[in-house]
């Protein structure tokens, strides 16, 4: 059975008078050991990013600021849509899941990945992804 996307609630410590902190404890909340962390920002609202899947890499996406619309299609053809707008939430994206993201201009997206960058891990063509779907 393949892994499914799901929403992760990170601890939200504090209150509105002093502010908040959220913590990612890797062995507790993430289903993988991180090997890479990166972020995107100042993405124009008209741009759709992502448009790929990974053979092996698992990821968690977090909207540190702004709003991010995330659409995911699993290798089994299941569709998921999420609206990230709380820095205390993240979305787990399993391997073999086609995903796209669209951002508010103020959005800052933090990505925690299970592997280092490897171009061979990417499936960049939707047609190639669909071909793999037909073979499961």
Question: CA-to-CA gap between the ends?
Answer: 11 Å
Mean pLDDT, to the nearest integer, reads 94
Query: Mind telling me the C-alpha Rg?
Result: 15 Å
**Percent helix range:** under 10%
Please give a quick description of this structure.
Helix content is 10%, strand content 48%. The protein is mostly beta strands.
Walk me through what this model shows:
This protein has a five-stranded antiparallel beta sheet, with no helix packed on it. A five-stranded antiparallel beta sheet has the order 8-7-10-5-12. Helices cover 10% and strands 48% of the residues. It has two helices and twelve strands; from the N terminus they run βββαβββββββββα. The radius of gyration is 15 Å and the shape is globular. Strand 2 and strand 3 form a beta hairpin. The chain starts with 5 loop residues before the first strand and ends with a helix. It has 136 residues and is mainly beta. The model has no long low-confidence stretch (mean pLDDT 94).
């Amino acid at each position: 059975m393949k892994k499914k996307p799901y929403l992760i609630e990170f601890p939200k410590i504090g209150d509105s008078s002093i502010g908040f902190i959220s913590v990612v404890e890797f062995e507790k909340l993430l289903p993988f050991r991180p090997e890479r962390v990166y972020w995107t920002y100042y993405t124009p609202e008209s741009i759709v990013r992502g448009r790929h899947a990974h053979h092996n890499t698992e990821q968690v996406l977090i909207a540190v600021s702004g709003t991010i619309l995330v659409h995911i299609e699993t290798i089994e053809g299941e569709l998921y849509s999420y609206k990230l707008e709380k820095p205390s939430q993240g979305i787990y994206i399993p391997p073999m899941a086609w995903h796209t993201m669209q951002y508010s201009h103020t959005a800052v997206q933090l990505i925690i990945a299970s592997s280092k960058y490897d171009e061979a891990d990417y499936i960049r063509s939707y047609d190639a992804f669909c071909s793999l779907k037909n073979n499961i």
